[in-house]
């Protein structure tokens, strides 16, 4: 009888150990399954960050020399990524532009000598098209961590400083390149032109149609251009509705 009792106790202990081991393994699997989605890289809908670089003026005092009189520019950027090909970007930027008549071959009426130094505040929006699907995921679909892109948009510019204040709508066009250095962190470089729809960026009356040949919104000489470098951070994970692979990739 004693032997049978011992055998039952041993059998019971073995069953308890097996049951305990089973539940330990089950708990481990549950934890792994629960934690893995949080660790997995995700696609995000939005980016926010800052940018810095330079700006230069092209107009009556600089007819065709890029980067002449390059001055600093700073700003903030917000981007909505509709899919891996298309994005909508908004920016708020400050830029300094300047110019003068030193070294010009053209002569202004009455041999006028002119210079200006202006602060430009811009708010704008641009649509962007990525030439490659931009992502650090979906490599099986040809996505790239780096892509060139083109942009087209519009906004409003206000100039203050020497001379009269000036406010005008502008059209923007340009190109750039994005690089996803790691999940959620992006570097960018962009060069763009701003075509102003008014003549008066310089703030000097002598430069508003100086040769009296007429001007309008699409016939004036006032532009400024920006070369900007940016760092942005992704946020806003795609929700369940966005988990459809077609809605993320745009294919």
Question: Keyphrases for this structure?
Answer:
8 strands; 251 residues; elongated; eight-stranded antiparallel barrel; Porin; 47% strand; 17% helix; 2 domains
Would you mind describing this structure in some detail?
There is one protein chain. The chain has helices at residues 2-39, 245-249; strands at 44-58, 71-81, 86-100, 115-130, 146-161, 166-182, 185-196, 223-237. It has 251 residues and is an alpha+beta fold. The protein has 2 domains: 1-40; 43-249, Beta Barrel (Porin), CATH 2.40.160. A hairpin with a 2-residue loop joins strand 6 and strand 7 (185-196). The protein is elongated and about 95 Å long. The termini are far apart. Residues 26-41 have low confidence and may be disordered.
